[in-house]
Amino acid sequence: MSLPNDHKDRGPGFIACATVTSVAALTLVSLRNYVRLAIVQKFGLDDLTVLLAMICAIVALCISGVQVHYGFGQHAVHLTPQQQIEVRKWSFALRIPILVGSGLSKISVSLLLLRLLGSAAGRARKYFLHGINIFVAIYTLIDIVNDAVSCNPTAKAWDLELPGTCRSPESVVDLVYFQGGLLELNFAILAACIPTLRPLFRFFDGKAGSSDNTPNKGFVKHSSNTPRSHWARSKIHVTGASGQYSLASFGPASSSEFLRNPGAIRKATDIHVMV
Question: Fewest 10 Å CB contacts: which of 65, 143, 159, 246?
Answer without folding.
Answer: 246
